[in-house]
Structure prediction request, 214 residues.
Amino acid sequence: MEQIYNLFYYVDNDIITKVGAVAYKQDGSDDDKIKYLQSKVEDDYKIAQLFELPDKFKIKHNDESIIKGIDVVSYLNMCSQGHDHAIFNNVIDFFKSKPDFLSVITPIIDGNIKIDGIGILIKPMTREPEYFHVIPQEKWYNVYIDDGGFHLDQLINDDYFEAIRILFNAKQYVSSIKLLMICIDTMSYLEFGDIPQNFQNWLQNYTDLNSMNI
Prediction:
């Protein structure tokens, strides 16, 4: 009989601040134990015992407050180095687990199970980090969101028309018109989706090319 674990990390706004665990004692092969844990994931994530992350994982918010946590990208980078269990050290201490315990790790994103595929845990390739301090960057699109919604017109202006104006005023007409075509291509995709003739449909709906003898 071996003590095995269903482990979970809970993601909110791309940040992991809590982990969870459910322990079992099972015999059989490792494959049998893994299949058993996988069969229990749907039930276990709702009843898992919750734990904070170890003290060494810290995130600094824009308001200068510091919380325990790690962003998902940084954690996945740690996993690629074989440190999948690093954020579960409080779980390991609580259950007094042996270092090479068997587990299935499942992400819970915004309250729901999110499995993109199945990966195999690898042996650590580097020393486990002693300290991990992350300062999250503000998402680029936040400046275009307010109580009135998402301002796509301002985004199109900043990402395309500002550059088109700069090129045109610098008499770089070929580059300017190329970027204009790319802009129309983007807007036609957003308007009509990935369908044949969406570029032409956009021109027919929103421009008067006849006045330009085109």
About this structure: The chain has six helices and eleven strands. The CA atoms of residues 81 and 134 lie 18 Å apart.
